[in-house]
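Good morning,

Both structures are done.
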Amino acid sequence: MNISQPKLFMLLLGCKPAGRHTEQHDVFFGIGDSLKELVPAMHAFWPEAKKNLHADAWREVHTVQQYTIRARLKTEATETIDATGALNLFFINLGGYRKGEFEEHHYKMLIVAKDADAAVALAKKETFYKQNGFKGASAHIDDKYGIDADDVYSVQEILPEIFSARYTIEITAATENETVPDNIHLGYLPLWKIT
């Protein structure tokens, strides 16, 4: 019998809600065997989007920094979840500005760290953070004007209840052959086209 391993997915969802002039975005995390399995949860996550909901980017999360990320059923979770010394997977949304551009640019990232302060310290080392700000318009972790650990999210804590009640995120040190970067899929993908 071939039992598939559930995967952690990260998606950049988009839609143009009624009455808005530009497309809006949010990040969704879900756990399952396939993207198709997550479609009902995506609609529940953003019900106002109705049939306009789509993905602009997505990835199966396997590797972050030098760590392997796995979704495990809570009933199957073992001591290996703590093997790294209680590390957490954090989602950070960096925001920044470039002179002369009428835009706030964003960089969405995943960081493995022991706590939110350590995750923020790592985020500040990112090229995006260093190159997307200037006096009077500093780079920041959205939605603040400066770095604030309250805007760093543990992925386990922001998983929709349907996933967080059932799964835990396991973080282990990656072996050399496990450090291949995740494939990032880009482009407009209506949810009804996900197979």
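Second structure follows.
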Amino acid sequence: MSEPLRLLQVGAGGMGRAWLGNIAKNPDVVLVGLVDLDVALAREAADEHGYGDVPVAASIDELAGGADAVVDVTVPAAHPVVSATALGHGLPVLSEKPLAESVRQSLQMVAASELSGKLLMVSQSRRYFRAGNAFARQIAELGAVGSLSCEFFKGPHFGGFRERMAEPLLIDMAIHQFDLARKLIGSEPVSVYCESYNPQWSWFDGNAAANAVFAFANGTRFVFNGSWCAPGLETSWNGRWRASTGGGTAYWDGDNAPTVELASGEAVVAELTDEPEEIAGSLAEFVAAVRSGAVPQSEVHSNVISVAMVEAAVQSAAKGAPVRIADVLTVAHAEAIETAVDPAVRACLESWPDVLKTLEL
């Protein structure tokens, strides 16, 4: 049996504490350090989860020597610096979503991963629901998808920064559904037309609702219809999904086992397999990838596309016109080169003959 992977976690806030519990439940990993700018907070969080003997510090540099990998659970604005620092120490990184706040920064993180030769993976937790994976298997068995739709309607009162954002739904939430659509369709997005708006009763300052239509390379259309100010008859946090194919239709309410009605009229309820879910699933895949060298499904080169879907949707809503994903990536690549602070990162970005080929689009 392999020795547990020694993890250094960065971030001791609310999500950081969820990850401490996640790490404690996985026998394949062991926490060897906790980093947070607020060292007292880190000490408190570690003690609360039974890590009284685990050292805490204000920087990765202080504890990197005793770790095999880093889990980045900081705020999105800190992801580029935290992940790049860890990679610079030769440590693979599992980062909470989003990879970064912009495609430009995300591409710089791709370069940092390439330079280090170490894995940078994003925890897209919606990819690890048992029912969602069963839904993906049902769709694959039905054949080519003509249309995939997701309805997302919730009425949360977060308070704080989300209610002040210009595009709270698209930027803070929709990446989950956009990323999952890529997995379910099995192809990559080409373009998007999006309209975002704010209903008159909304308690958000910015646009808390949006409708987006993505065209995928294989001809599939993905339609997202969502709102964060929709009290009553709310959907699952995963959304409510429907996939239409020539062989029948698959439906998932976001929580329970998905169902299929075949073209013959026969109804089939999916069987769920026993597998780790949500952040436990992403941690399990990360550990397996570090040990085997396999490429996980949310490896940094691939995950940039999900970030680009969000950025393209925001641009489309602002312009009132469709936006091509390739155009977003091409512009961001030029910006990433221009703004790169590390000369090695800049040289790596400049060495890419074509950003789309580098990302295997």
